[in-house]
Design a protein that fits this description.
Number of strands of chain B: 7
Helix content of chain A: under 10%
Helix content of chain B: 25-40%
Oligomer: heterodimer
Number of domains of chain A: 1
Shape of chain B: globular
CATH architecture of chain B: 3-Layer(aba) Sandwich
Number of helices of chain B: 7
Order of helices and strands of chain A: EEHEEE
Structural class of chain A: mainly beta
Number of helices of chain A: 1
Shape of chain A: globular
CATH topology of chain B: Rossmann fold
CATH class of chain B: Alpha Beta
CATH superfamily of chain B: NAD(P)-binding Rossmann-like Domain
CATH architecture of chain A: Roll
Distance between the termini of chain A: 36 Å
């Protein structure tokens, strides 16, 4: 199981990109942190999620 | 006229010499000089941050005055110039570097290579994401303090500071989006700006 924004999800084995494509996140408005480190955008495809990984997807909203 | 040593000594009495020295030796960039950036920068200069990099491509217009830290007499001026003048009135001893241009992936390095801490203060969500990703991917030693979700009239105390990674902090409520019909009001944007400025001083305080 992978913890994503505090929720346990059965997505081990998927890449970050595969997971994101199952969501409504706008890829141009997010930053992804995995186990305390940012995942470079160019590595979403090659970063495979494992059991006990912790992922946070930060989705930016406008205003400033 | 107050001398620089009088200014410094008064601040050392307030913050202590250690924090004062850290603030004097740190360069902070404020990216975007709207409701967030124009409020962040004065707080930083008051707290003794000596070198500030101010970046914006825009001019002050009338609707900015309702929530941004400019004067009516600034309308029509470049935000970089108007804010720099305001900061030097607070503290004439600051080193203020201005760049009147739009930040893109192509010029980030030339604009921000000297910055130790970067305050992301854009209004556009894609620009926020671009800057945060770029900084964290390319500069493992820089800190970035970003803001997301400060529009509307919801409670001010829904705005929080969260630490996402060692060097990435996020301020805001995370959800109040100008693109979903929330307007920006001066007080709530200023709360978020104060969170970002406070995050800077807390990072400095914890530096070894």
């Amino acid at each position: 199981m992978v913890k994503v924004n505090g929720e346990m999800l059965d997505i081990a084995g998927k890449s970050v990109k595969e997971y994101l494509l199952t969501t409504n996140y706008d890829m141009t408005r997010i930053a992804v942190e995995k186990n305390g480190e940012i995942v470079p955008k160019a590595q979403y495809d090659s970063t495979i999620l494992k059991d006990d990984d912790s992922l946070e997807v930060v989705s930016f909203v406008g205003g400033g | 006229m107050i001398s620089q040593s009088e200014w410094n000594n008064a601040l050392i009495e307030r913050h202590g010499r250690d924090l004062f020295n850290k603030a004097q030796n740190t360069t902070v960039a404020v990216c975007g000089l709207g409701g967030l950036g124009s409020n962040i920068a004065p707080l930083l200069i008051r707290m003794g941050i000596k070198r500030l990099i101010l970046i914006d491509f825009d001019k002050v217009d009338l609707t900015n005055i309702h929530r941004q830290n400019y004067l009516l007499s600034d309308v029509g001026r470049l935000k970089t110039e108007a804010l720099k003048d305001g900061l030097l009135k607070i503290c004439p001893f600051g080193e203020i570097i201005t760049h009147n241009e739009k930040i893109t992936e192509d010029n980030i390095h030339s604009l921000l290579s000297e910055a130790d801490i970067i305050c992301e203060a854009f209004d556009n969500a894609e620009c926020k994401a671009m800057l945060v990703n770029y900084i964290l991917e390319h500069y493992p030693k820089k800190y970035i303090i970003s803001a997301s979700g400060m529009a509307g009239l919801n409670e001010a105390d829904l705005i929080k500071t969260r630490r996402i990674t060692d060097r990435f902090y996020l301020c805001g409520d995370g959800v109040s989006d100008i693109d979903k019909g929330f307007s920006l009001c001066a007080s709530r944007v200023a709360v978020c700006a104060a969170h970002q400025a406070h995050c800077v001083i807390r990072i400095l305080n914890e530096l070894k």
